[in-house]
Amino acid sequence: MTRGAPSPVRPTLPSQVSPPDVALTRQPLHALTGVDVIAIPVLPGDPADPADAVEGEPLAPLLGPGAAEVGDDLGLDLVAIAEASRATGAVGEVVTVPVPLGGPDNADLRLVLLVGVGQATPTDLRRAGAVVARATHDRAGVATTIASLDAEHGIEAFVVGVMLGSFGFSWRSSAPEHVPVARVVLAGLPASADEVDRAALDRAVALGGAGWRARQLATVPSNLKNPAWLAEQAQELATEAGLACRVWDDEQLRAQGFGGIIGVGQGSATPPRLIRLDYTPSRSNRRTPTVVLVGKGITFDTGGISIKPAQGMSTMKRDMTGGAVVLATMAALAEVGCPVKVVGLVPAAENAVSGSATRPGDVLRHYGGRTSEVINTDAEGRLVLADALAYAVAELSPAAIVDVATLTGGVKVALGQQVGGLFATDDALADALLGAGDDAGEPFWRLPLHAAYEDKLASKVADADNAPSGPQAIMAALFLQHFVGDVAWAHLDIASVGDAPDDDYEWSAGPTGFGARALLTWLGSPDPLAGVGATS
């Protein structure tokens, strides 16, 4: 920027929609007031029941809790309506039944939805929740018994689906095209489980809210979102969640030897930052172990001097999804009862093109002294992560480190757009994360840290080449492994799942925030570090 030139006007993010409020009730569906939609679960017919089996005809669907009472109250044969609509109970199906005059007990009622829930597994119920959310945009309230189909997992799965299926982001001059349903009421739950159900609801709101927060941060355009802005969000989040917060500016990063972060960010008009958040559980002592989460925070990635093509740059506002996941996870740790200390690190930089940008052939010295030859400036994520990983090992004495990053196109080639890549030096840590991902609906596939490729990292002038030939995702993981020493470590490459191409159940087209629910499911378990460090 020319000396003396005025600073550019900083844009203001418009007010955004919020997730629905969720409440529990013991009242029957037909007697509820203040809702204009009732959603009734529909399950597939039982093939073992001869009454359901008519040769050449689909099985008659089964209507779930509350259907009979709602039908009687409204004078509707909901079973006949479902059959006439050829409902099968498959997840994703919705039969809309208008109730233009309301009901005798609820004058506000306008719609009954018959919603397919498949086999009512947690995945089915999460997806049904997202379907209900999209079918009730702009409504005042929806009441449903869908969550009651699974006493153990139903509330969490359904509520997370509703929250994420409601997600929206808008920067228009007018109001958003749609807003989420204002209120969701869960009915049909046993009164005997009051305390358990409220705890499940609180946990569900924490998980869904973390997914929402990560997705929103990743969606903010980069004319507002830069490293300083991301640090401001972290400070606000820390105040809200009761976390300790520290931010390094570019001068401090230079003085303390964070050469990877400085090297990536030095070409931008907005200097880099390193963000640190600390969570300490209420019952902790000096023996309480520490987990470190590291999230890639590239607020926009042009590729640097090794510039990306225009098409490859179009989604790069979300190249800080790993950082967003770490921030969102840190904010919700207390709500899921995380029993270990957690430090979140987000190395934040904008990878820009300018006369001061790092060049191919430059050598960067990372925190702790290891050097990297920058052969490709578009392999920048590993350079900033390396600094944060080295800092974690040197300063934080962690029992385990997990990094999260939209790191390589190679993982997308390998896994498509529905599964994230996982590398790990510790089998127990890998298994815990794989299980948590499956439970949360954010699945990972473990890929190998194949040592036979190690020699490809060799540089003639530095400790490593940042962009060697070979399988991209594995080479990036091998590069990072040098910075974690003998600490149990997992690397989550979420470039495969960083963007959803279309609305698909709980996923909305655009940045996904993938990983926050998986990390919270792991860290919110009774013993996240069980067995970690015992195997490798």
Q: CATH superfamily of the largest domain, called what?
A: Zn peptidases
Determine Rg (CA atoms, Å).
Answer: 25 Å
Oligomer: single chain
Main sheet specs: 9 strands, mixed
Helix/strand structural class: alpha/beta
What is the third-level CATH name, the topology of the largest domain?
Aminopeptidase
Overview of this protein structure:
The protein has helices at 67-74, 78-84, 122-135, 154-165, 194-219, 227-241, 250-255, 259-265, 310-313, 321-332, 381-395, 409-415, 427-440, 472-481, 516-523; strands at 21-24, 37-43, 62-63, 94-98, 111-116, 141-144, 183-186, 244-248, 273-279, 290-295, 297-301, 341-351, 363-365, 371-373, 400-405, 420-424, 444-446, 464-465, 488-493, 499-500, 510-511. It folds into 2 domains: 21-189, 3-Layer(aba) Sandwich (Leucine Aminopeptidase, subunit E, domain 1), CATH 3.40.220.10; 236-523, Zn peptidases (Aminopeptidase), CATH 3.40.630. It is of the alpha/beta class. It is elongated, with a radius of gyration of 25 Å.
Describe how the helices and strands are arranged.
Layout lengths: L20 E4 L12 E7 L18 E2 L3 H8 L3 H7 L9 E5 L12 E6 L5 H14 L5 E4 L9 H12 L17 E4 L7 H26 L7 H15 L2 E5 L1 H6 L3 H7 L7 E7 L10 E6 L1 E5 L8 H4 L7 H12 L8 E11 L11 E3 L5 E3 L7 H15 L4 E6 L3 H7 L4 E5 L2 H14 L3 E3 L17 E2 L6 H10 L6 E6 L5 E2 L9 E2 L4 H8 L13
Parallel strand pairs: 1-7, 2-5, 2-6, 6-7, 10-12, 10-15, 11-12, 14-18, 15-19, 16-17
Antiparallel strand pairs: 2-3, 4-5, 8-9, 9-12, 13-14, 16-19, 20-21
Helix pairs in contact: 3-4, 4-5, 5-10, 5-15, 6-10, 8-11, 10-15, 13-15
